[in-house]
Amino acid sequence: MSATPVSVAAEAAEAQPLSRGRVGMWCLIVAESAIFLIFIVAYLFYMGKSLDGPTPREILTVPVITTICLLSSSATMHWATAALRQGKQTAFRLFWFVTFALGAIFLIGTGREWHHFIYQENFTIHTNLFGSTYYSLVGLHATHVAVGLIALGTVLLLALLGKVKQEHSERCEILAMYWHFVDAIWVVVFTVVYGLGR
Amino acid sequence: MNSHSQSGRHDGSNEQVRLPSPTPWPILLAVGITLIAGGLVSSGIVSIVGALIAVAACVGWFRQVLPRERHGSVDVVPHDIVIASSRRKVARMEAPQAPTRARLPLEIYPISAGIKGGLAGGVAMALMAMFYGIVSHRSIWYPINLLGAVVYAHIQVTDQQMEVFHLDLLLVAIALHVTTCVLVGLLYGTLLPMLPKRPILLGGLFAPLVWTGLLHSILNIVDPVLNQHIDWLWFLASQIAFGLVAGMEVVRQVRIPTWQYPFSVRAGVESPGMMGEEDSHR
Amino acid sequence: MATDSIAIPLPRTASRSVVLDWLCTVDHKKIGIMYIVYALIFLVIMGCEAILMRIQLARPESTFLNAEAFNRLFTMHGTTGIFFVAMPMLFGFGNYFVPLMIGARDMAFPRVNAFSFWMTAFGGILLYASFFSGGSLLHGGSAPAVGWFAYAPLTAPAFSPGHGTDFWILALLVAGVGSIGAGVNFVATVLCMRCPGMTLGKMPLFAWMNLVTGAMVLVAISPLTAAQLMLIGDRFLGSHFFDPAAGGQPVMWMHFFWIFGHPEVYILIIPSFAFISEILPVFSRKAIFGYPAMVAATAGIGFISLGVWAHHMFTVGMPSYGNAFFVLTTMVVAVPTGIKIFNWLATLWGGKIRFATPMLFCIAFLFQFLIGGLTGIMLATAPFDWQLHDSYFVVAHFHYIIVGGILFAIFAAFYYWFPKMTGRMLSETLGKWHFWIMVIGFHLTFDFMHVPGLLGMPRRIYTYQAGRGWGVWNMISSIGVIFQAAAILIFVYNLVHSYFKGALAGNDPWDAWTLEWATTSPPPDYNFDAVPVVRSRRPLWDIKHPEDPDWKYE
Lengths: 198, 282, 554
What we know:
The complex is a heterotrimer of chains A (198), B (282) and C (554). Chain A has 198 residues and is mostly helical.
């Protein structure tokens, strides 16, 4: 501790309890939530206001399996970071890989859904208000999943090369915060699009 | 936490401070993203170039902070920094030694005085009302039922019903009577020190007159049953009985002096002073 | 330490690399200066746009500009002023002084900080590239002409052909990412980087207010980004968010824009409050009055301002409940704002006031901000707003806040902190000239601008008929601009001249009390030789008055 004339041991010993990485990620999550909020408001507001078809009831099918995959990836992510914190490398790599795989399944599922809509149903962002709001909201979420997957994939690669050590657990946990946020947002998007919207 | 201690706070020696090294990647990432956006209004090539730059910048940035943040070390040139002020004098905001202006009232009654006065006045008023009941209807329950009937305002009642004992009406009447008496007593305790001249006259006669008049005008709305049966002269008499007894009881209590200093002074708050530049208060 | 092997010596002295040094820097002080210089350049540009518009409006039926060019000018003037002058300027001062005031070596994320600045910078350049992207430069190239709030459906491809509106959207999107980065950085810096002993309750108000601003940036700029993404969808991908032909609602854009737009005003004014809250006490020689109340009022303003946006929309026909709600919330903002004004007055009260240039600008701020706030309350009353909506009264009102409030606070900050940033004082004589000419010009322009508004002159018209009674007032407003331009010229000359030839400042020219004055002017790369330890809100007072320190009372 640097010596300064007015130093008082009791007060100077005060710890900095907040990690700037976590605070930064929380801020980012707040900002992202605001962006999602606007898209969700637009979706809710334009629900049932399309001038012509197709309507959500006609074409949307509830993506049960991919949703289960995405939500369970939060649990595996939690186990992965817990394992890294305790220095269990093998468990960390395994759970991290499972997380990545579950996220990838989700993204593939969304891709198949879109492919089906565009080529079989002839339903695009241009079709009607439902198309505009559906593709933008689900697409915004899918973009976040994709960004998360790129980050997860990078860490996975480094982990397989043996470069992710216990000292990096803080950073992995910050990345995990982002992943949990993406999952939590999916709960909202899912409720709005496949629940209320149908 | 190693990677987070960029502040160099833990360098005990104070010879070198570690700071993040300069890096071109942030500006290149910004260039890339701007070019991607600019491509939308010019040509796709621009977007593609921008995307390439952005990806390269991301990779470069990533390699800069992982696995460890890159730092540069700077030698600390010891500066001889003297922190001093030529304005040495401090003027304090002084609390006045003696109050220059009285904060009125100088004396007040304790809260207990109001409660005692209210209860005493309430007893007097109740006695007067029951006396009226005996005189007019030969029943002490008549005025009590009248007061209690406020909760049954929508039901038609006969005189016979009003002269016999009703437990529910008694309880309602007692609750109403005690609450109102204590509240008015408290009001007396607060008000009477403010009426230095003839408090008994004002509190005992004038105030009951005023609120009897007020009640006279609004009673039809508040308690129609009471309004039908009321005898205003007797009512006024019982109010004056209350006012006189409550007033006298309150005035009998010992007064306590009020604080003549503002709250902040009494709480011991001393504000940091102002610095005098040419004056010499101290 | 393992990192020492890759350490690069920081101070590069080779002259060739000076430019590279600035482009690659992650030092919060250099980034702060870049923000400020960048904002100054755009301040001059937006001022020139204003001059052109005032020349056009000085006389009725003027043909100095055509309608199209006029539309482009007021769009660019407004957009530039909010996004590329006011925000970067305030972020610049925040960047430079928040770490210094909380005793940190840098911001929490130095590289993100650099990235944020460059995004803001390139956003501005992208916006101005529109001038050169086709069309005659005399008529403003293909600059956007949809107004700074770009109401739908005017922004639809059918009504805004060409790329003008696209430039506007993309520039704000790019700059918005930068702003969000800066917001994250401010919050994380203030929460995580404070020096030992500096609890939240002992932070300078400057840090508190930048914390609130940072948090507001996160929740206010994001909706704009979202709305811009939707607009990009409408213009490039054929979605129908704001397209009435397919059932879309232009009013949605209004809501989305103002959910950003009104908090934005507070994102600009709260850092200005921060300047005032630091400068007033030093020149009154007293501690700030009511520190906790100031903090609470700042947080209160930040919170309430998120629920007032639709007072910009009283005339679109909201239900009466909606109108009543937004009237009430808007008026509630006046309560914490009033608390602040009274606290500043109480700080002045009984002080040994020194009327140096920074203090003059602060005092002018108090008066002008108060008047601007009062006309704001007038306009918050829905029936009054129905009468004066989109008139020159509104224009005069918000210029009272932005010029009379924010810009004056920025000038105060320049005169106060220039010595710390450069090591040299700004000239007091030129400063006083600057102040008085600016005050005269400001009041000539904007006091008299209220009147044509009351007489019914709508904003955004490129000319008007003679004989409507607006001519004289517009002429007076335009004459005021001459004074303002002269004042700015004096200011810029003062900056340049004092930078080279100003009197040496020393470390602490104002005898102030916050930590930035405890290091050299300009501060070294690492800010402090040793990280300071503080015990009160005025650490330098404690050192200067060891017999009577503040921490005895706090």
